Amino acid sequence: GMPMLIDSLCFGNMCPSGLQPQCESTIQFYRGFLKHWQVDHFGGCEHQVNLENLPHHHRPHEIFRSENAIRCNLAHNTNENNKSKWQQGGTMALTMGEMCFRMHSQGSDLTGLGRWVWQLFKGKDGISTRIYTAYRPCKSQARQLMTVYNQHRRYYKSKGIDGCPRDLFLIDLEHELQGRILAGEKLIVMMDANGDVTGQEIYRLSEAVGLHDAILSHYPNLPPPATHRNGSRPIDVILASPELKVIQAAFLSGQDSLGDHRTAIVDFEFNTLLGTDLIKVVRPQARRLTCGIP
Known about the structure:
This protein has helices at residues 24-36, 60-63, 148-158, 165-182, 200-209, 270-274, and strands at residues 6-13, 41-45, 70-75, 91-96, 103-108, 116-122, 128-135, 186-192, 212-213, 236-240, 246-251, 264-269. The chain has 294 residues and is α+β, with helices and mostly antiparallel strands. The protein has a six-stranded mixed beta sheet. A six-stranded mixed beta sheet has the order 5-6-7-8-10-9, covered by helices on one side. The radius of gyration is 19 Å and the shape is globular.
């Protein structure tokens, strides 16, 4: 028979270093990590950079480029007049290799807060799968001005919106996902929830949009692991439409992970993500020359 095609998704929190230009060794580690685990799609939270102020050669499509095609989507909070290269928070999605040729479009949270990014993939038989990477802020004190939580508070205040940024995140995300479900899409949501993902709030969100925890449901008899270095509960999750077939799923150990959270990897059966009869599209690989002359 034909070998089973799998699609390897990886989700990790990139704190504390993120993609900050001075953290060259960390960026080299990320590159080696993605290659070692043969990742097809990577979702990262807290990349910690303000894209608008990064030099070209430090942007993700440059630092992650390789002999394979890549498609990168990075979001950060664009609502503040930030003159620095550094900014707490942010989300990113990186698709590598064969998956790039199935990518239809990409986008991000419409508030401009960078709470999530998505990439939409279209396959055979009208199958569409949209993959999200999302970051829900953790509560912080008002005097910690630069935290993601307080960035969100300033934004909502300027719009006259009352409420806790953590609650508003879940309300807005649920609303966004409901629309995608109605359009007949399959969904994957990779999220740092900064709260117990086996608790009421995330359970309610996943029930409302018909998703399940791709890792914990793969191991129904095992206790969920703590996913933050100093935590006791799982706060990171990959939610997926139940018809997407999980072949393997794991949280890596702390020392093998990308940041201070345990990195999650899930292998999905490709056909359930994107239908069968894959015709390989061979795009000529352009030589990506960067040149100082305009």
